[in-house]
Amino acid sequence: MPGRIEETTPEDVLEVFRLRSDAAEPLIATEIAESLECSRRTALNKLNELAADGHLQSKQVGGRSKVFWQPIDSEEADTHRDSSES
């Protein structure tokens, strides 16, 4: 359909997490929306979908804000820990 805006996918959201400079920094829906040039509501829906599927974790902060981050699996954490101890 001509002129239709490309749909934001969960994979697009995960790519934002992968490409950031600080992997430990959590993100909010507004940051995702700005990065992907989509609405905040769309970003929040995708973030909640990814959290429900276990790809992201989230935490309520303040009255209405929620932060999201990618969990580090135990193997990745061990690898990171080992390399930082060298």
Please describe what this structure looks like.
This protein has 86 residues and is mainly alpha-helical. It has one domain: Arc Repressor Mutant, subunit A, CATH 1.10.10.10. Helix content is 50%, strand content 12%. The chain is built from 4 helices and 2 strands. β1 and β2 form a beta hairpin.
Strand order of the largest sheet: 1-2
Order of helices and strands: HHHEEH
Q: State the share of residues found in helices, binned by percent.
A: 40-55%
Overall tally of domains: 1
- The tally of helices reads 4
Query: Got a strand count?
Result: 2
Any guess at the CATH architecture?
A: Orthogonal Bundle
Report the C-alpha radius of gyration, rounded.
Answer: 15 Å
Structural class given helices, strands, pairing?
mainly alpha
What is the typical, i.e. mean, pLDDT? 84
Highest CATH level, the class:
Mainly Alpha
Largest sheet: 2 strands, antiparallel
What is the overall shape? globular
How is this structure best summarized?
The chain is mainly alpha-helical. The chain is 50% helix and 12% strand. Strands 1-2 form a two-stranded antiparallel sheet.
